[in-house]
Amino acid sequence: MDKEVQKCVEELMTSPGVVGVLCADRQGMCLTSQGVANSNYSGSLTSLSHLATTLEPGKGDPVILFENHESQCLIHQNMGMTLAVYKTNT
Amino acid sequence: MEELRKYVACILQRVDGLLAIIITDRDGVPLVKVALDSAPEMALRPSYLSTFSAMATDQAGKLGVGKNNKIISIYSNYQVIQMNKSPLTISLIASKTANTGQLVNLENDLLVVVNDLASSVVD
Known about the structure:
The complex is a heterodimer. By secondary structure, chain A is of the alpha+beta class. Chain A has helices at residues 2-13, 42-55; strands spanning 18-24, 30-35, 63-67, 71-78, 81-88.
């Protein structure tokens, strides 16, 4: 399983504009992180996605987008796994 | 010392499900202890807290993968995270459902307190 996850993350990293990818389990433990994604923040990312699901219960897993002038961070939780993708705006 | 305790009490409120933060010396004697009423009393006893610094971390260090930094123990109702900051130990006691990643990340914030205490312990 490790290799498959790693392969997916590496594929994501080759997508245009992607500068970092992080995967965490439901306990907030970092499974893998690449690029600018800091494994220290896996707990906070998981917690944020969990909080977002409580805003509209029963409407599926939301996608959270943080955006500033230079970059974006997309967070999505599915089947207990949290995926964060860091992108540049260019 | 009271200020240190207040700072640790603030950190305690930062993570949902975190029940206690205890900073102990090698013998499990608490130097700073902040706990909610719901924290399990058994896990706050020096006899439990000292097992990490006196035995577990030393033994784990012999596995051939370098010095042991932290041990995460997950029980059926609680989780305990113990961090080796020789000569001191940080113990975090939380409910099973608490976010382990966030708990581990508290290490950076608690390091300030531990460094302050460690210098006075060595003195």
